[in-house]
Amino acid sequence: MDFAVIQEYMPLYIEAFILTVKIGWIGIALSLVIGVAAAFVMHFKVPVLSRIAKIYVELFRNTPLLVQLFFIYFALPKIGIQMSAETCGALGLGLLGGSYMAEGFRSGMEAIPASQSESALALGMVKRQMFTSVIFPEALSLSVPAIVANVIFLLKETSVFSAISLMDLMFTAKDLIGLYYNTTEALFMLVMFYIVMLLPVSLIGSYLEKKARLATFGE
Q: Which of 14, 29, 18, 57 is nearest to 151 (CA)?
């Protein structure tokens, strides 16, 4: 292990790390919005929209992110839809994550006793009020383990961004290995930066899962 090489590579990895984290969390934020919307229309069986949501979930859960990115980055420009590589990466991650988040939120909603929805309606709440004030808060608490697992999964999936020429961590490692053949140092730094990115999420996620479990079921 040549620590002089590691020191030399450090600025490049830091820049790639910042880009990876930025795109990753934008994609995760988008996936949460899509997931909640899709779970809502599926849970309440909104005409037409619920069927579209189910098709979307099945399509994106059963195709690799790499294929989705290729379609967004290479195919959409053929019909006049141009986006930067960063936008493509965030959109692809958001669409993939949204399909998983939707199922996580939906399972949380379905775990809530029907009596709570009936009570909310009996009190005069419309479906929107019932969702925001009764169902969603409880479903969110029940869905914390699934959300945390999906966030970690999506952050790891950022490793395929290099396929669309994004200078992320994986692209940087492969580029440096190809140029200078310092494979050990390049891969060591790649692993370390992914640990730095994922370990805090895992620890915070475990803490939130414990809090959600205590809030829902007590000690």
A: 29
3-state DSSP helix/strand/coil % of the chain, to nearest 5 = 85, 0, 15
Report d(CA 39, CA 129) in Å as an integer: 16
**Amino acid at position 195, single letter:** I
| pTM, entire model | 0.88
Cβ burial 116-131 (10 Å sphere, 16+ → b, else e): ebeebeeeebeeeebb
Distance from C-alpha of 83 to C-alpha of 155, rounded to nearest angstrom? 21
58-92 confidence digits (pLDDT tens): 999 999 999 999 999 999 998 889 899 999 999 99
Burial of 217 (C-beta count, 10 Å sphere; 0-12/13-18/19+): exposed
Residues in the chain: 219
Two tokens, residue 100: 């998983």
Phi-psi region of 45 (alpha: psi -120 to 50; beta: other; left: phi over 0): left
In this prediction, residue 216 carries a pLDDT of 54
Under CATH, to which class is 3-217 assigned?
A: mainly alpha
